[in-house]
Every structure is written in structure tokens, then in C-alpha cells.
From TrEMBL, chains A, B:
<keyword id="KW-0805">Transcription regulation</keyword>
<feature type="region of interest" description="Disordered">
    <location>
        <begin position="283"/>
        <end position="303"/>
    </location>
</feature>
<feature type="domain" description="HTH lysR-type">
    <location>
        <begin position="2"/>
        <end position="59"/>
    </location>
</feature>
<dbReference type="InterPro" id="IPR005119">
    <property type="entry name" value="LysR_subst-bd"/>
</dbReference>
<dbReference type="InterPro" id="IPR000847">
    <property type="entry name" value="LysR_HTH_N"/>
</dbReference>
<dbReference type="InterPro" id="IPR036390">
    <property type="entry name" value="WH_DNA-bd_sf"/>
</dbReference>
<keyword id="KW-0804">Transcription</keyword>
<keyword id="KW-0238">DNA-binding</keyword>
<dbReference type="InterPro" id="IPR036388">
    <property type="entry name" value="WH-like_DNA-bd_sf"/>
</dbReference>
<dbReference type="Pfam" id="PF00126">
    <property type="entry name" value="HTH_1"/>
</dbReference>
<dbReference type="Pfam" id="PF03466">
    <property type="entry name" value="LysR_substrate"/>
</dbReference>
<comment type="similarity">
    <text>Belongs to the LysR transcriptional regulatory family.</text>
</comment>
<protein>
    <submittedName>
        <fullName>LysR family transcriptional regulator</fullName>
    </submittedName>
</protein>
Length: 326, 326
DNA sequence: CTGTACCCGGTAGCTCCGCTTCACGGTCAC
DNA sequence: GTGACCGTGAAGCGGAGCTACCGGGTACAG
């Protein structure tokens, strides 16, 4: 394995054109540089320098290696620059997770705005189901998670996570235009016996919320279609193959032939942002300071990263509050 | 300045997810890894790890830095890979120089072929005049140089350079179609008194070759137009503003209205590839071995790089020998 | 041609860095 | 509860890397 420090020495020689110049730049003696280069030659198995007058020049192998060295040094300089700005600037990786339809309605605009304002921010995104994503967030594999929580079945989050409500919206019943209930102003859930339902896969929040809402009025939904994509569900509804529950964020774009009707009792869905709250981490608030904070010269405990805070702020600013939710 | 070795430690922790795993991968004890990370935290000024159960996870600063570390390690691995293949494969930078029209006729095809066959070869190209480029080659700022040498004025190259002839071609006189000599089968240089000449800038090979060729028959050319681009010279010739000497490589594409006529005495031009010949370097073949070869454990003296040899071979294969030169 | 200044490479010696060993507190699983 | 595992810290040792110095060689001025 190559010694990375020695690559820095080689790069200095390539830049300054001489051992003496490199030594001056690195604040060491020429002898030290020469020794490092000799070792680099031995461990790389190639001559890197050849005498040229009273100075040296790089061989082909030396130039090849110096090219890598230049990139390594540039990476190191970039890292230092990022570290210097890390406390103040919005920088570095931001690992986002999303669940369900909240992704499409909220994230693209916010990510566009964030990356425009903070070019050194590197967001990544994974979507999935709440049951799988929440543990990822708690374990530290995600920085920020967008989840949905249905009012009749509030999402349970483990301790140590902070949340903010990004949107509250009504849930409507989607019907085909030819459906007998399509012209109602409002539909009672109790009137929905015998309907065929489409919803998201079993285990997801919309599925469980649908089942619980109907059981609350003494009905058991006949769920015949479970598909992840709202667009597919709407296509089924448009052909009168099923009815479905839709939060407002999922209603556009809708294909022709679909009607959305409020339901009674009123159903609401929230979209939440969740992240680890450093202050409350751990099962119990341990009375002793954590081990890594013991030493006097230790650095302070990390707080929520500026990147997470900035993203939550940007998401909050979107104000996707349903007009009918007022 | 960040310690590059410590970045490798951080990367190992990021990959293996624990101090113990990183320690095993690096073949050191967990304590050693922990100490290196603590130093990295101190010198970076940020917490990089935080406790998480009985293991650790990276903070935002840690992930940011680990991203750089991953790239640094990847560069180092790439460098090692290139070094391992350097003796056998065509790899690394190839700094080409070109003089005059030889560039356009020969290089593009050869470079396309070379980079297709050897994707890890990184050619660069600079063009200029022989008077400036030859010292660059001798000094080691170029690996390979394409130069032209006119038979009546052979190019003088310093010792230590090897050459290969890539093409030999006749030089013709370019005339406008309406020129009185345009219908001749052959033009005697001695008949060209009083002509207005276009050629390359003073000091270049074509300029000096023109002057010497005419002086050899007792004439002094009236050079009124000196422009670098052959296309511009041809445009002047096409409008009967001047006559010019053109090697065959410079004759296409020619604008309408230009005739090319052989000259007497016959003029020839060669295109040469020149590179440093390691065996003959230095002014005199020094009787003692060079200083850098002294040590017994020293590596062998570098020979011409495979990249240079491959490029010379590819250039030789082009076989741009003039049909009329046979 | 000669003297001088400079550059590179090698050697001896010293300093400091980094690793290992050992020990301890905390966490998780049985 | 208890044992296994993880991460961290202190002490000590070995080696890596630096400096100081010297010698060989080159470029440049006179």
C-alpha cells in the first residue's frame, strides 16, 4: 500500500521542479525530501526521478504517480476546506429517506432549492416503507425521513427522534365518474360496504389506516388491489374497478374519469419530517456524561447537522397545507 | 494539513462500521485505530464519531470527511494499479509536441487509435515552432515531438534525442489557376524571379527552407505574406496574390483555383518523430555510472516509456509516404 | 579554464509518532 | 444477572522521519 504522505512529497517535487524547491515548500530539508522519494521509489518499484543537470526531473512513472498525487492533494485540500466551513455552512452528505406520496409532492422543489443555495451539499434519497425506514433513521443510516401519519392511526416513532409537521391534508374518496356515489357532496364511510378497494401494499400506512377507519364504523374493506403507485390506483378507480382513499397530495395528476369526494368522519393525514435529536439520544437520559465526552480536551457533543436543519426549514417553508384543512 | 494516513483509518471505519472491524482490516489493534481517530478529531476540529450502543457511528462531519477519504483511497488504489501495470501496459501521461502541418495530417488518427487501444493513456498536445519545441523535448517537458525537416536544410537536433522518419514527401509549388506557370508540368526554381511569396512566419522551417532553396539558385524571394495557417496561404494563392511551397500533407483540403506543380531541383520534406533516448542522454557518454545508479539496491535506469514507444510505432504504421516520392 | 555556488544523495544520530499491551467502563444477548 | 464484546485510555517500546553534515557533480561567471 502506498504511503499517502510520500505522494504529497512527490507532488511538491512535480510542482516546484526540484527537490530543493519542494523541501522549501514543505518546510523540511532537501535531504528529507530525497529520502522520502527514495523510499517511494523502492516501494513503488519504479524510478520516479532521473538526474537532469544539477536538478532532477520526473520519469514517466514519476509523472504518472504525480498525477495521482495531485488529485490526492486536491482531495485533501477540499476536505480541509469543507471541514473549515462545516460549522457555518450547509455542506456534506444529506441522506434523505421518504415514505409514500410525500416524496413527489414535497421533495423535488426543496432539493432543487437547497442544492442551488448550497452547492456543496450532496443529498441522497432512498424511499421505502415506514416500517423499514424508521429503524434506518434511528440507527443513523439516514439523516432525515419524510413519513406520513394518518390521524386515525398516528405513527409511533421511537424515542430520540424529533419531528416537525410539514403538511396536514384531508383524505378523500376516489371514485369512478360512473360510480353511484360519485355525485355525493360527502360520503359516509358506513355507506361503503361491499365496495372493492385499491390501496397501497399491506403493512403500509395507507393500507392500515384504511382498514382501521372502516373497522371503526363496523366494516371490513374488501381490498382486492394493493399497488404502490398512486397513479396505478387511480387508473383502477377510473375504470370503476375499485374505490380508494387519497390524500390531497396524491390527487394530481389524476386521469380523466376520477372524482374525489370528502368522507365522513373526516380523515386527515400529516406529512412529518423526522430526524435524530442529539439531546435525547439513548434509551434513558444517562446521568453520567457519555464516555466520549469524558476527556477535558474533548470536542463538544455534535448537535443536529446544519444540513438537516436547513432541509427541515426548507421543507417547512413549502407550506403545503390543504386549503380545505383550514 | 490533514494526515492522509488517518483518512485511510477513517475510511476503514466508515466501510466496516466499527472500530474493531476497521482494526481487523488494517491489521492493527482497535486501540490504535481509536487513537488515530482521536487525533484526527483534534486536528480537524470536529467530532467524527459518536457512541451508538456498544459501537460507533459517524457524525455528519465524519461522513463528510469519510467521503473525501474514500476518494483519496480510491486514487491511491488507482495509482497502485497503474504502477503495477506501468512496465507492461501503455499507461499514463504522454506529452506530445507538434510543429507545423505534420500535426493535422498524422496525429488525430493516431491519437484516436492509441486512446482506443489504451484507455489509461492520457495524451496531451502542444504545438509551436521547432525553435521553441526542441528545447522543451530535450529538457523533458515533452515526451515526443513531431518536427519537419526540409531536405535542403536538415533539422539539427541536440544529442540525446532519437528520431524516426514518419513520412517523406515532395514539395510542390502552389499557383493560382490564372498564373502564367500554372500549366507547366514542372517549374524550375530559377524561373521564379519576381514572384510574390506566401509562407509560414520567419524563423520557421518552411520559411527558412524557401529562402535557402531560392538562394541556392541565385534568387532572393520576395516574401510578402507570412501566416501560420496553410489554409490562409492557399487562399492567398487562389486569388493570385502569391505563390507558395507546399508539402503534400499541406495540400488538402485546397480551395478551388489552386494548382500544385512539381519543382526543379526536386524538394523533399520529412516528418520526424523525436524523443529522448535514455541510453545516450547527457553531453558525453560519461565513463562512470550516473550517481543515481550507484547504490546496489537501486532500481534499473528507466528506458523510453512504453507510451512513447507505442506512439512512435503507431505513427510509423500510418505510412504517409508520398506516392510521388517513390 | 578555473573557481564558486548550488543541487542532489548518503550517513549518523536524535526526536517523536504510532503501535501494542493491559486495564476499565459501558452495552447487548442469553 | 452475567458473560462477551466494543471502544477508550495509559505506559512503554520500536521504528519512521527529520536534521546536520559531507561528498560528488553541474551550471555559470570571470
Amino acid at each position: 500500500m502506498l504511503n499517502l504522505e510520500r505522494l504529497r512529497v512527490l507532488h511538491a517535487v512535480a510542482v516546484h521542479g526540484s527537490v530543493a524547491g519542494a523541501a522549501a515548500a514543505l518546510h523540511v530539508t532537501p535531504s528529507g525530501v530525497s529520502q522520502q522519494l527514495a523510499k517511494l521509489e523502492r516501494e513503488s518499484g519504479h524510478r520516479l526521478l532521473e538526474p537532469h543537470g544539477r536538478t532532477v526531473r520526473l520519469t514517466h512513472a514519476g509523472r504518472t504517480l504525480a498525477g495521482y498525487a495531485a488529485r490526492v492533494v486536491a482531495e485533501a485540500a477540499g476536505a480541509e476546506s469543507d471541514l473549515a466551513d462545516l460549522s457555518a455552512e450547509i455542506i456534506g452528505p444529506l441522506r434523505l429517506g421518504g415514505v409514500g406520496s410525500s416524496l413527489r409532492a414535497l421533495l423535488p422543489d426543496v432539493l432543487a432549492e437547497l442544492t442551488r443555495a448550497h452547492p456543496r451539499l450532496v443529498p441522497t434519497l432512498v424511499d421505502g416503507e415506514a416500517v423499514g425506514m424508521v429503524p434506518l433513521l434511528a440507527r443513523g443510516d439516514l439523516d432525515l425521513l419524510l413519513v406520513e401519519s394518518w390521524a386515525n392511526r398516528p405513527l409511533a416513532l421511537p424515542a430520540g427522534l424529533a419531528t416537525r409537521t410539514l403538511a396536514v391534508e384531508d383524505v378523500h374518496l376516489a371514485l369512478g365518474e360512473g360510480h353511484p356515489l360519485a355525485d355525493r357532496e360527502c360520503v359516509d364511510l358506513g355507506d361503503l360496504d361491499g365496495q372493492v378497494w385499491a390501496t397501497c401494499p399491506a403493512g403500509t400506512e395507507p393500507y392500515e389506516a384504511l382498514v382501521q377507519a372502516l373497522r371503526a364504523v363496523g366494516r371490513e374493506p374488501e381490498i382486492r388491489y394493493t399497488v404502490t403507485e398512486f397513479a396505478t390506483q387511480l387508473a383502477l378507480v377510473a375504470r370503476d374497478l375499485a374505490v380508494a382513499l387519497f390524500p390531497e397530495m396524491g390527487q394530481s395528476p389524476a386521469p380523466p374519469g376520477v372524482r374525489f369526494v370528502p368522507v365522513r368522519p373526516r380523515m386527515r393525514r400529516e406529512v412529518l419530517a423526522a430526524w435524530r435529536a442529539p439531546g435525547l439520544a439513548g434509551r434513558r437520559p444517562s446521568p453520567l456524561p457519555a464516555a466520549r465526552d469524558g476527556g477535558a480536551r474533548r470536542l463538544p457533543r455534535p448537535t443536529a447537522s446544519p444540513a438537516v436543519r436547513a432541509c427541515v426549514e426548507a421543507l417547512s417553508r413549502v407550506e403545503w397545507s390543504s386549503p380545505s384543512a383550514l
